[in-house]
Design goal:
Order of helices and strands: HHHEEEEH
Largest sheet: 2 strands, antiparallel
Number of strands: 4
Distance between the termini: 22 Å
Helix content: 55-70%
Shape: globular
Amino acid sequence: LDLIPLRLFSLLILIGDNIKYNLTQTLNQSRSWPLPGPGWLLCAVGNKLHLALGGPAIYGQQKAVRAKIGGRIVPTSLHLAQLRQLLT
């Protein structure tokens, strides 16, 4: 049920500078993410702010391998503030 609202929200995030490039990158990268709804949202935010998201993660003692999406900048606390401003 959340697939359509997440995709619409992702498209709203992409509005602005470089919309064509960001949309193309989001569509290409979202195919590699296991969940379709959150994948679009993560790719849209990552491409809009040029943030490197995804990649390997460790949960407890288990390593999960996920696709790298978004840009090339490693996120910091400053980027969380930018993301909060973008989402509000």
